[in-house]
Amino acid sequence: PTVNNDRKYAGYYGALQVCNNKYYSLVDAVSQHIGEANTVTASSTDDGVKAVARADFVVLALGDDLLVEREGSDRKSISFPESQLNTVNKIAAASKRPVILVILSGATMDVSPFLNNPKVGAILYSGQPSVAVLGVGDVIF
């Protein structure tokens, strides 16, 4: 659900005008290493499961955005929403190889539901990376 969040993160504490006037997302971060990345949103988990079965590898973005976590408005729980937990389980089960979870969030989130899942190969917490999200691709690849 957070894979295409770009402008939502970039203008929070950073400059109002970003470098090259381009707001980057996790899709851009992955695409710079593998070419065009196929994305599936949380609202189409069933389509995602079909796509994952054919994928060479899977990077799954989770977390929240500034609508949930910002100054003066804290989350009531550090748990992932049930919909995201279900998405991870379905996508991981359908994947040929262990998936990479990238968490985009303004604060701590409870990753314990993923720790014993053998189909989760890595968990990367990237905070709210703003335009520095391109570095997430460097870490993964």
From TrEMBL:
Q: Name one Pfam family in it.
A: Glyco_hydro_3_C
Q: Which family does it belong to?
A: Belongs to the glycosyl hydrolase 3 family.
Task: Indicate whether Hydrolase appears among the record's keywords.
Answer: yes
Keywords from the UniProt entry = Glycosidase, Hydrolase
**Its GO biological process terms?**
arabinan catabolic process; xylan catabolic process
Which Gene3D superfamilies does its entry note?
Glycoside hydrolase family 3 C-terminal domain (3.40.50.1700)
Query: What organism does the UniProt record list as the source?
Result: Aplanochytrium stocchinoi
**Protein name as annotated:** Glycoside hydrolase family 3 C-terminal domain-containing protein
Q: Boundaries of each Glycoside hydrolase family 3 C-terminal domain copy?
A: 11-130
Q: Where does the source fall among the domains of life?
A: Eukaryota
GO molecular function terms attached to this record: alpha-L-arabinofuranosidase activity; xylan 1,4-beta-xylosidase activity
